[in-house]
């Protein structure tokens, strides 16, 4: 990696999963800047971070909080992380996706092509839960390779914004990632797959019971309707971002 990288993690009511992430992040070198974006969670991330983050990690970790609780506002959470990142390259992942410390040296040694973006090979940790039924892996299997995640990737920050960032028109509904990734592919071509030594472990509820969000509706119909409307208009690039109030916590 020609410069440090920023890892961006959205958080919403997942204290056990955040604790698990911090156990790994505590061993990251300062070359990996960490941004956690609390998406207005009714159980704030700050308490977990203050309790479980090491003093060394807090030197290269920043915590932001969206100060209103809007269901499925991950589009803004990801945009806020990308806006506040100070490195050329950023990694966007969901909170249940763990980049183990053993992968970090290979990531930092990588020489990615600036015109491309990259997805991660992925391994599932834990038996399949309700969100993992599509995995091409036996449901009772505790560990195994699965397909890369569409919304977990490495990209240049400038490329992210050239593509337009996530549309916050999807805030409040599930399913805004595909529309942004279509614009990203239009900007930088299809993603490349990172080497196998740079992979993610997706954690299921059998390992961390709050690894995925359970308290919000998973009805995808409203998001699909917005997606179809944007497709009809040629996927216009958003013109405004971070539309809800937010603050830096740490």
What this model shows, in words?
It is a single chain. This protein has one domain (5-248): Spore Coat Polysaccharide Biosynthesis Protein SpsA, Chain A (Alpha-Beta Complex). 28% of the residues lie in helices and 20% in strands. The protein is built from eight helices and twelve strands. It has helices at 15-25, 45-52, 55-58, 74-84, 104-109, 157-162, 177-188, 221-232; strands at 5-11, 32-38, 61-66, 89-92, 97-98, 118-119, 122-125, 143-146, 153-156, 192-193, 200-203, 246-248. The strands form two sheets. An eight-stranded mixed beta sheet has the order 10-6-9-4-1-2-3-12. The chain has a four-stranded mixed beta sheet with strand order 5-11-7-8, with helices on one face. Helix 1 (15-25) links the parallel strand 1 and strand 2. Helix 1 runs parallel beside helix 2.
Order of helices and strands: EHEHHEHEEHEEEEHHEEHE
- Using only CA atoms, what is the Rg? 17 Å
Q: By CATH's scheme, which homologous superfamily applies?
A: Spore Coat Polysaccharide Biosynthesis Protein SpsA, Chain A
Contiguous runs where pLDDT drops below 50 for at least 5 residues: none
Q: Could you tell me the strand content as a percent range?
A: 15-25%
CATH class assignment: Alpha Beta
What's the overall geometry? globular
Structure annotation, total helices? 8
The average pLDDT value, as a whole number, equals 95
The total tally of domains equals 1
* CATH topology value: Spore Coat Polysaccharide Biosynthesis Protein SpsA, Chain A
Identify the CATH architecture.
Alpha-Beta Complex
- How does the major sheet shape up? 8 strands, mixed
Instruction: Give the terminus-to-terminus CA distance.
Output: 26 Å
Proportion of residues in helical segments: 25-40%
Strand order, main sheet: write it out: 10-6-9-4-1-2-3-12
Number of strands: 12
């Amino acid at each position: 990696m020609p410069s440090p990288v920023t890892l961006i993690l959205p958080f919403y009511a997942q204290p056990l999963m955040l604790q698990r992430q911090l156990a790994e992040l505590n061993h990251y070198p300062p070359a990996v800047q960490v941004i956690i974006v609390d998406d207005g969670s009714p159980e704030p991330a700050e308490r977990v971070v203050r309790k479980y983050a090491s003093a060394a990690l807090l030197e290269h970790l920043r915590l932001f909080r969206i100060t209103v609780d809007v269901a499925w506002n991950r589009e803004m959470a990801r945009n806020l992380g990308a806006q506040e990142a100070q490195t050329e390259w950023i990694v966007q992942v969901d909170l249940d996706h763990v980049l183990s410390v053993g992968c970090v040296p290979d990531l930092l040694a990588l020489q990615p092509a600036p015109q491309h973006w990259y997805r991660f090979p992925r391994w599932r940790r834990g038996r399949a839960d309700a969100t993992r039924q599509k995995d091409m892996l036996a449901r009772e299997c505790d560990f195994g390779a699965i397909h890369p995640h569409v919304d977990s990737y490495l990209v240049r920050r400038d490329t992210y914004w050239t593509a337009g960032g996530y549309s916050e028109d999807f805030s409040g509904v599930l399913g805004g990632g595909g529309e942004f990734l279509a614009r990203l592919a239009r900007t930088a071509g299809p993603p490349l797959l990172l080497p196998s030594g740079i992979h993610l472990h997706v954690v299921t509820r059998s390992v961390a019971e709050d690894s995925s969000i359970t308290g919000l509706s998973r009805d995808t119909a409203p998001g699909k309707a917005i997606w179809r409307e944007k497709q009809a208009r040629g996927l216009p690039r958003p013109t405004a971002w971070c539309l809800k109030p937010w603050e830096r916590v740490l």
